[in-house]
Specification:
Length: 485
């Protein structure tokens, strides 16, 4: 029997232990999906043991304790273990983790120290428990110091000599700014004579990008966009030197948790086969939001972090541009105070708009099940979950043609209507958004065509199993390749 590939999987967050954003979804779902493959992968997840995890009563067993060298003296790391969905999870505690109040404190010195400590402790742990990984799979800047450290020690360290690294980028602009001194204090030097620009030579994500054996991001389209001036976070020239090692693998969706046929939050459950039942959810939602009960008016939704990345600022003007048409809208989000203000003002300006400024998972589900069209005008979108959830719930996505949105939505073109699942627009402007809303409303008037769009979206396979197979291929490629050191 062939030995399973061993993967040491490092991330700053993973559902259900700790989730702040999309990274938490990926690190929560992918390891279990990899273990469930016909050719299972022995993947072990490592996370920092944040105070909030400690408090929530998980069953944690002590595994090891050891010191990590630091310029101000060694720092004790204590590692605990738990098992969730068949995946072994190691949790690293120590002063840099327990002294930082939030997962991401926003303080570069605190976060830099915490995540460098975590990255180095994860590698040391593998040695102490004598579990030699074939792959070090690191996510985002928080785990990138491990990738860099692997490259520094691999030639001289027998234990890691055959370990390859994969760095997954979930959001390129988060490079780990101003954390260089924290890396240095743990003995990780600046790169020198490297193709990185000078300003990036002591930042964790660039160092990881420089030294990872392979790099991937969370959609094929974003993998190409990363190489351009517009999306390249000022690293275009450098990333060009690594382009042959960069690929894109679309994130999956937890198809069980997001299933309109079983979702307990919905007034009525439905599927692509019983789509007519869906309108009961729209009726209930309009009532809940105190909107006009007329089911014939298209109901637009936005469910988003209110952030410049998400293009939320394009929406007010776009809605003004389609004021002559009949529609209603609900906006659910939290975030940037100035964008929250703009959303509040929209509610006041238009009697047919409802703005809900809070995080509300249940309401989000009822909106996915009850609205007709979801607006996703993102400036960039490495993958995006919203459009996949919306499609699964028969809520048609209208999105900017970028990143994962472009990879998952097939635009309604009259010629190719038999495959389409939504609407896409190119230019990041209110006018382009408004023009596309107009186009969508025209199609909405023909309910037979509209239901075709809904059903095709609902039948798409966005399962994690699909993504996991692609990650396995990448791991196999790495295991079979040279280190190139
Ligand atoms: P990102 O990770 O960049 O914020 P994604 O599209 O990958 O964006 O994921 C966003 C997720 O968060 C979706 O599941 C969406 O439904 C959910 N979400 C965003 N804002 C809210 C909110 N205010 N209330 C409930 N769910 C929200």
């Amino acid at each position: 029997m062939v030995e399973p590939i061993k993967v040491l999987f490092l991330a700053a967050e993973a559902d259900p232990l700790v989730k702040i954003g999309g990274l938490g979804d990926v690190a929560g779902s992918l390891p279990a999906a990899l273990r469930a493959l016909p050719e299972p992968v022995d993947v072990r997840l490592v996370l920092p043991l944040y105070p909030q995890i400690k408090k929530s009563g998980w069953d944690l067993t002590p595994v090891a304790s050891f010191n990590i060298p630091h310029s101000r003296g060694p720092i004790l790391a204590e590692v605990f273990q738990t098992l969730i969905n068949g995946v072994t999870i190691y949790l690293v505690s120590g002063a840099p983790v327990s002294e930082s109040p939030a997962v991401y404190s926003g303080d570069p010195s605190q976060d830099g120290t915490k995540f460098t400590f975590f990255s180095l402790a994860a590698m040391e742990l593998a040695k102490i428990i004598d579990w030699q990984p074939d792959i070090l799979h690191a996510h985002d800047w928080h785990a990138a110091p491990a990738v860099y450290n692997l490259r520094l020690i691999r030639k001289s360290d027998n234990f890691f000599r055959n370990t390859k690294s994969l760095l997954t980028v979930h959001n390129l602009p988060y490079l780990g700014y101003d954390t260089g001194p924290a890396l240095g204090a743990f003995g990780l030097p600046r790169a020198h004579m490297s193709p990185l620009p000078d300003w990036a030579e002591h930042l964790p994500l660039p160092l990881g990008l420089l030294t990872a054996d392979k790099i991937n991001t969370v959609s094929p389209c974003y993998a190409k966009e990363m190489l351009t001036e517009e999306f390249g976070a000022n690293l275009k020239g450098f990333l060009g030197t690594r382009k042959d090692d960069i690929s894109g693998i679309l994130n999956g969706l937890d198809m069980q948790s997001w299933d309109p046929a079983t979702d307990p939050q919905l007034a009525v459950n439905y599927s692509a086969e019983t789509l007519n039942k869906r309108k009961e959810n729209k009726k209930k939602l309009l009532n809940e939001l105190n909107l006009d009960p007329d089911l014939g008016k298209p109901l637009f939704a936005m469910i988003n972090r209110l952030d410049h990345q998400k293009g939320v600022d394009l929406v007010p003007e776009a809605l003004r541009l389609v004021h002559d048409l009949e529609w209603q809208a609900v906006i659910l989000g939290t975030g940037d105070p100035s964008l929250e203000d703009a959303a509040r003002r929209l509610d006041q300006e238009f009697p047919q708009v409802r703005t809900v400024l809070r995080y509300d998972g249940g309401l989000a589900r009822r909106i996915y099940a009850g609205s007709d069209l979801i607006l996703i005008p993102s400036r960039y979108e490495p993958c995006g979950l919203t459009q996949m959830i919306a499609m699964r719930y028969g809520c048609v996505p209208l999105a900017r043609a970028t990143g994962g949105l472009k990879d998952t939505i097939i635009d309604y073109l009259f010629g190719k209507a038999g495959q389409s699942t939504g609407f896409l627009f190119e230019e990041s402007t209110s006018q382009a958004l408004a023009d596309t809303i107009r186009r969508a409303i025209m199609v909405y008037k023909d309910q037979r065509r509209w239901q075709g769009l809904q059903r095709r979206g609902m039948r798409k396979d966005f399962s994690w199993e699909r993504s996991a197979k692609k990650y396995l291929e990448l791991y196999q490629e790495l295991v079979e390749g040279d280190t190139g050191d």
